Amino acid sequence: MADHILGRLKRLGVFADLTEPELNALAGEFQERSFPEGSWVLRQEAQNTGLFIIIDGEVGVVVDGEERAKLTTGSFFGEISVLLAEPPTASVVARTPLKCLVIPAGRTEEFLLAHPRVMYRMLQTEARRLKTADPTRD
């Protein structure tokens, strides 16, 4: 993977606990994908998705035709559908030109188990999302 991608990985919160050698080893596990502004990255009810980590750009999260959230560099999406082996409950559209790192659905479990610190950071992010969605949660 190009050095500029490794430089970006270092700045993403989900990889904050990894050393440079760990990042280098990890880099080969991703597929890099680019999407033009306005294109659908993920479709609600689609099959064969993956875990997407935004390295540059912004997306809108759309549920039943209504945009519910915006995600930017460092955010990830697709995790719920790959963890539950179910179709996504939301669509994702590129709001700007977008670059993502993708782990295909079939490799996500193996990836997360091999990188527990990444999995822990993802769980922290999910907890923050839940707390923001329902401020009465502890």
3D architecture notes:
By secondary structure, the protein is α+β, with helices and mostly antiparallel strands. It has a single domain, classed as Jelly Rolls (Sandwich), CATH 2.60.120. The protein is built from five helices and eight strands. The strands form two sheets. Strands 1-8-3-6 form a four-stranded antiparallel sheet. The protein has a four-stranded antiparallel sheet with strand order 2-7-4-5, with no helix packed on it. Strand 4 and strand 5 form a beta hairpin. The longest helix has 18 residues. It is globular and about 40 Å long.
Compose a concise summary of this entry:
It is built from five helices and eight strands; from the N terminus they run ααββββββαββαα. It is of the alpha+beta class.
Radius of gyration: 15 Å
Could you say how many structural domains there are in total? 1
pLDDT average, as an integer? Answer: 85
Number of helices: 5
The largest sheet is: 4 strands, antiparallel
Main sheet: which strands, in order across?
A: 1-8-3-6
CATH topology name, in short, is Jelly Rolls
Could you state the order of secondary-structure elements as H and E? HHEEEEEEHEEHH
Shape-level CATH architecture: Sandwich
**Strands, total number:** 8
Report low-confidence residues grouped into runs of 5 or more. none
Give the name of the CATH superfamily.
Jelly Rolls
